[in-house]
Design brief:
single chain, alpha+beta, SH3 type barrels, Fumarylacetoacetate hydrolase, domain 2, eight-stranded mixed sheet, 10 helices, globular, binds calcium ion
Length: about 425
């Protein structure tokens, strides 16, 4: 497949991708959109021009919206048909290749479009599904012997996160304040968090509402997932380690999480599927699955100090996940918990085996004992004020690349 649009080499947004997002055009007009190369395409206008008329099940202009929720809710038969139609329209010699009026009206340089939160997220859940990450954290906090807790290989462990503070890439946020108890102190102190961290994660977005009491099996899960995003689940380690007993993460986790603006569909990621790592001991029946359920997505994390250059600090891969998305969704709903359109389910920090593949500062600096050296000569144990963290991710195979662009976020001083 070749497009009539000029696509820069190594672009994440090849003709094989066709992701979905929501953009502000000319600072005033909002529409759902897609991207190819460096062009963003206004889908509401494309709809008005009649290019989706033949697709059954899309009877109104769902792209004329501030979120993708209405579009996503139409389900896979419609969203897949729309994606394939866009792909067809973008190919060489398509009916819009020489249609100056449509191109003029619908195609924008990506630098002129401000991307918004792609979906309204009613509920956010965070899993803990990387065995390397869980083992590293376990070793640090409980020692080598008890690194993995007894439930870990039987349950995709997770908790309910906070949806209100999920923001889109490019957003800034203030360093959180809270209670912390330094190891050598008798009593807790209050102040700006001193151990601010990122978590390299990916999230998936659900496309349906289910009834309470119903479950989504591992076989049904992929049909219920619209697509994926990059996800930085910012964490305040010192607040977290004091508050988490006995009920788990709370204020150390709920002050900000950042998503990438483009939702890449599961269909675009299909060619990059790989086997899930072997699960021992055998899981309970409701967690068994068939086929390739992991995805080979290269993930890089960069730390950029104020006015400085980007430092590559981690190189990981989504394929390392011990628990896959189908198992996570099956587990989440096995008790009858209902899901809603736009729900976001995050993977948990994605660490690999190697030291340069760890997905958090906590692991990269081993709780601050091995600071990272940056190219400007400074060191980091954790994230400092005015640092920007950038995550990029893409899948690539046989010359075909499908990527997410980036998720970036900057830390401002405490308010
Ligand atoms: Ca997390």
């Amino acid at each position: 497949m070749k497009s009539f649009i000029n696509i820069p080499e190594n672009s994440d947004f090849s003709i094989h991708n066709i992701p979905f997002g929501v953009g502000v055009f000319n600072k005033e007009y909002i529409s759902c959109c897609t991207r190819i190369g460096d062009m963003v395409i206004d889908l509401a206008t494309l709809y008005d021009y009649g290019f989706f008329d033949e697709i059954e099940g899309i009877d109104e202009n769902v792209f004329e919206a501030y979120t993708l929720n209405e579009f996503i809710e139409l389900g896979k038969p419609v969203t897949n048909a729309v994606r394939l139609k866009i792909q067809e329209l973008l190919q060489e010699n398509s009916k819009i290749a020489d249609d100056e009026k449509t191109i003029e009206a619908c195609f924008y340089d990506c630098n002129s479009v401000q991307m918004m939160m792609p979906v309204h997220v009613p509920n956010y859940t965070d899993f803990y599904s990387s065995i390397e990450h869980a083992t590293n954290v376990g070793k640090m906090f409980r020692g080598e012997e008890n690194a993995l807790l007894p439930n870990w290989k039987h349950i995709p462990v997770g908790y309910h996160g906070r949806a209100s503070s999920i923001v889109v890439s490019g957003s800034e946020f203030h360093r959180p304040k809270g209670q912390m108890k330094p190891a050598d102190a008798a009593n807790p102190i209050f102040g700006p968090c001193k151990q601010l961290d990122f978590e390299l994660e990916m999230g998936f977005i659900v496309n349906k509402n289910t009834e309470m009491g119903d479950s989504i099996s591992t076989t049904e899960a992929n049909d219920a997932i619209f697509g994926m995003v990059l996800f930085n689940d910012w964490s305040a380690r010192d607040i977290q380690s004091w508050e988490y007993v006995p009920l788990g993460p709370f204020l150390g986790k709920n002050f900000c999480s950042t998503v990438s603006p483009w939702v890449v569909t599961l269909e675009a990621l299909e060619p990059f599927r790989v086997e899930t790592p072997k699960q021992e001991p055998e899981v309970l029946d409701y967690l068994k699955f068939e086929g390739k359920q992991n995805i080979d997505i290269k993930l890089n994390v960069y730390l950029q100090p104020e006015n400085g250059t980007e430092n590559l600090i981690s190189e990981s891969n989504y394929k390392y996940m011990y628990w896959n998305m189908a198992q996570q969704l099956a587990h989440h709903t096995i008790n009858g918990c209902n899901v809603e359109v736009g729900d976001l389910y995050a993977s948990g920090t994605i660490s690999g085996k190697e030291k340069n593949s760890f997905g958090s500062m906590l692991e990269l600096t081993w709780r601050g004992t091995k600071p990272l050296k940056l190219t400007d000569g400074s060191e980091r144990k954790f994230i400092e004020d005015n640092d920007t963290i950038i995550m990029r991710g893409y899948a690539e195979k046989e010359g075909i690349r499908v990527g997410f662009g980036e998720v970036s976020g900057k830390v401002l001083p405490a308010k």
